[in-house]
Amino acid sequence: MVKTVLLVTLGGGIGSAFRYLTTVFVNKYYASAFPLATFIINILGCFLIGLLMGFFQKNNLPDSNLKWLLVTGFCGGYTTFSAFGFENISLLQSNNGVTAMLYICTSVITGLLAVWGGLILVR
What we know:
By secondary structure, the chain is an all-alpha fold. The chain has helices at residues 2-29, 36-58, 65-78, 81-93, 97-122. 85% of the residues lie in helices and 0% in strands.
């Protein structure tokens, strides 16, 4: 367990650093009112988790150290949106479309309400 925590921590730290660097790079070259850096990070994270999880599933490596380092750690540090995307695709692939739509809608709406509630509490 300690080894797994260390792998997730290492991957998460690297992912967080890459998130920061992506934000700096995008904002330096593309000034926009649209949150382009976060959008790019979320889409890249979703693509990366798709590649990685496909690889680990194809090679039957559900508890691989690389999975903890790269998926849980790196992708989790880079963006949690990637896990959200993967979980919904998994639900859709297992014919749980109603659950997926419920998860998507409740996550987005509840997430926005939670941010709004946090902002109100600080004011």
